[in-house]
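Input structure tokens:
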């Protein structure tokens, strides 16, 4: 990915969504701030089109559906794409983040903040709309299944806090004064304890459990 390109306003962005008018509106909102490399309908072969677009980041409009199909988003995330997901309401935030989105915004308020959020997402930062962050943090007080198999150590908690800032293993190692191999060991331990498949899912689960505040 090329986050500096997006920060300069020349990054390549792919837009995915079922509604062509919504995709066009997003393209207009990004005009002059990013190069819209592709406007892709949400359909079974959309990830093939996404790969051809060679985009720095993806804006994925999940539409007004309150139970969207997230299989394509999961596949794109596993392929390494930075994804800004636009959702219909705040109840979807946790699920969409767990599916691999790097950033989540409410559709109704996304336009103004989209360029800035794209820049952050391309750098690997986890970004949430203010209203979504409030909901996820508030959810930590409710009974939640999936508590860690064993408590996180003090060092693991420090590493987890840095993961929530979007830090790489190398950045974690530098921040804590430890070897990069040791940082990777702690990250793997966190994923195992939180039963998470990736760093983003671990951060989301930790937020919902009240282990961190996003």
């Amino acid at each position: 990915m090329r986050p500096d390109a997006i920060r300069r306003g020349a990054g390549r962005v792919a837009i995915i969504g079922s509604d062509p008018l919504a995709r066009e509106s997003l393209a207009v909102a990004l005009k002059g701030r990013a190069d819209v490399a592709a406007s892709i309908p949400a359909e079974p072969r959309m990830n093939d089109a996404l790969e051809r677009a060679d985009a720095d980041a993806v804006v994925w409009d999940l539409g007004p559906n309150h139970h969207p199909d997230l299989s394509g988003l999961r596949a794109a995330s596993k392929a390494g794409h930075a994804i800004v997901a636009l959702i219909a309401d705040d109840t979807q935030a946790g699920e969409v983040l767990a599916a691999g989105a790097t950033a989540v915004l409410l559709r109704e308020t996304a336009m103004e903040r989209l360029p800035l959020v794209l820049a952050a997402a391309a750098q690997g930062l986890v970004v949430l709309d203010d209203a979504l962050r409030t909901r996820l943090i508030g959810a930590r007080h409710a009974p939640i299944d999936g508590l860690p198999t064993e408590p996180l150590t003090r060092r693991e908690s420090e590493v987890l806090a840095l993961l929530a800032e979007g830090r790489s293993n190398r950045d974690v190692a530098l921040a804590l004064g430890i070897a990069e191999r040791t940082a990777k060991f702690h990250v793997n331990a966190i994923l195992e304890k939180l039963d998470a498949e990736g760093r983003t899912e671990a951060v989301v689960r930790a937020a919902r459990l009240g282990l961190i505040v996003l």
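The chain has two domains: 3-131, 143-208. Residues 1-10, 138-146 have pLDDT under 50 and may be disordered.
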